[in-house]
């Protein structure tokens, strides 16, 4: 049992070639669930604003919330601390994220101040965590203070956005979040990070769990909106194809990609792996919204062509997922491009069909996408089976 009143406990992680056998804590899992609840609200925002502008605003919201999650996740990966003060900081952070979730629907309108301040509080808690680390763990003081200074500047930019006219406050958000995204990429921070490497198995599992929760949320969204509806032949056919796509999304990430460990000592591999998870999460949220909308259209007009905005959103979600997966796979094996090339080809085919399938019904459209996705799963199975004898031989 951890003594909540003892000083923070820190440890320096070992290189990626060794496993620390560290398990994910209950507080981390609870933390993830709160974020996913906020992503549900962002998905609802997209569902209510299916325009080009609405999609752009959706991208901004996802980036902001994903980055907040990523910052805390990497902190808890590098510094193992579980005292009363740390838990209090995390709980304040959770409260702030919940406030972001409550503000999403009007974040670009009358609740922009509330949204901005909630995000500022989230980042302020992280700054305080790094500030504590710099005092308690002097060996990594330069590293911790680098994030304290970098994220503090980000907070100042966010607060400065409140001085802008209401209709362009989001410009300040973009400047602030762009600056924060660049902090870990600065040469000095990259050099300091080599002395305090991440726990690779732990961070891989954290990103994997977060991804599967977001994917599951997409499934829940479809069921929730379809509750109490009768399933006829058009809905059944659409559902079969839709499940093939859903299972393919799971298979392509979790049956191969999620099992591999990325080399964080190399910027060439770690950058596409970490930042590739941003468009991956974005695509899964958009996929849930698009699948829900397309299924609902089969209930009213099953034989009519798929509504253009729903078809294009579904297309964009699949294309974004495949391109993100290609980036992540590149981060796992930068010297082998077969897997990435297959995903890029799948993304191109999906994009072309999504643009030209003007007269396709929802079931027909999703059916073709299912074939494209299932083909990639088939290739993945084929490649794994062909590699097994080689692995056994060596």
General description of the model:
With 394 residues, this protein is an all-alpha fold. The chain is built from 13 helices and no strands. The N and C termini lie far apart (44 Å).
Q: Low-confidence spans: pLDDT under 50, at least 5 residues?
A: 1-19, 390-394
Q: Gap between N and C termini, in Å?
A: 44 Å
Structural classification: mainly alpha
Instruction: Please report the total strand number as a whole number.
Output: 0
Number of helices in the DSSP assignment: 13
Which percent bin holds the helix content?
Answer: over 70%
Strand content: under 5%
List the helices and strands and how they pair.
Blueprint: H1 26-48, H2 52-78, H3 84-103, H4 112-136, H5 141-160, H6 169-182, H7 187-195, H8 200-225, H9 233-254, H10 267-300, H11 308-332, H12 338-356, H13 362-393
Helix pairs in contact: 1-2, 1-3, 1-8, 1-10, 2-4, 2-6, 3-4, 4-5, 5-6, 5-7, 8-9, 8-10, 9-10, 9-13, 10-11, 11-12, 12-13
Which keywords apply here?
394 residues, mainly alpha, 13 helices, disordered N terminus, disordered C terminus
Short description:
The protein is 75% helix and 0% strand. It is built from 13 helices and no strands.
């Amino acid at each position: 049992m951890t003594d909540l009143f003892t000083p923070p406990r820190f440890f320096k992680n070992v290189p990626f070639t060794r496993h620390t056998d560290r398990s994910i804590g209950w507080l981390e899992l609870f933390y993830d669930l709160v974020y996913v609840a906020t992503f549900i609200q962002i998905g609802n925002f997209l569902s209510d604003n299916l325009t080009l502008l609405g999609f752009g605003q959706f991208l901004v919201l996802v980036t902001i919330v994903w980055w907040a999650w990523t910052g805390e996740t990497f902190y808890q990966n590098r510094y193992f601390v579980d005292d009363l003060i740390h838990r209090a900081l995390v709980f304040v952070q959770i409260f702030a994220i919940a406030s972001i979730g409550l503000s999403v629907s009007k974040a670009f309108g009358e609740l922009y101040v509330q949204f901005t301040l909630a995000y500022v509080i989230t980042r302020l808690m992280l700054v305080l965590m790094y500030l504590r680390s710099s005092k308690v763990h002097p060996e990594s003081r330069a590293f911790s203070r680098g994030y304290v200074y970098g994220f503090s500047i980000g907070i100042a930019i966010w607060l400065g956005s409140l001085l802008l006219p209401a209709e362009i406050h989001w410009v300040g958000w973009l400047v602030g979040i762009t600056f924060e995204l660049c902090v870990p990429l600065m040469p000095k921070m990259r050099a300091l990070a080599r002395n305090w490497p991440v726990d690779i198995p732990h961070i891989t599992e954290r990103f994997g769990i977060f991804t599967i929760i977001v994917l599951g949320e997409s499934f829940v969204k479809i069921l929730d909106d379809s509750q109490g509806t009768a399933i006829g032949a058009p809905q059944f056919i659409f559902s079969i194809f839709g499940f093939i796509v859903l299972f393919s999304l799971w298979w392509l990430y979790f049956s191969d990609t999620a099992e591999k460990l990325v080399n964080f000592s190399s910027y060439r591999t770690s950058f596409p792996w970490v930042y590739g998870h941003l468009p991956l999460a974005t695509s899964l949220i958009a996929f849930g919204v698009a699948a829900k909308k397309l299924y609902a259209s089969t209930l009213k007009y099953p034989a009519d062509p798929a509504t253009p905005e729903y078809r294009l959103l579904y297309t964009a979600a699949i294309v974004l997922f495949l391109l993100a997966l290609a980036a992540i796979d590149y981060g796992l094996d930068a010297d082998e491009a077969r897997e990435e090339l297959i995903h890029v080809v799948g993304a191109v085919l999906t994009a072309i069909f999504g643009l030209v399938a003007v007269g396709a019904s929802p079931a027909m459209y999703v059916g073709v996408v299912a074939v494209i996705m299932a083909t990639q799963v088939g290739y993945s199975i084929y490649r794994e089976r062909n590699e097994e004898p080689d692995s056994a031989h060596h």
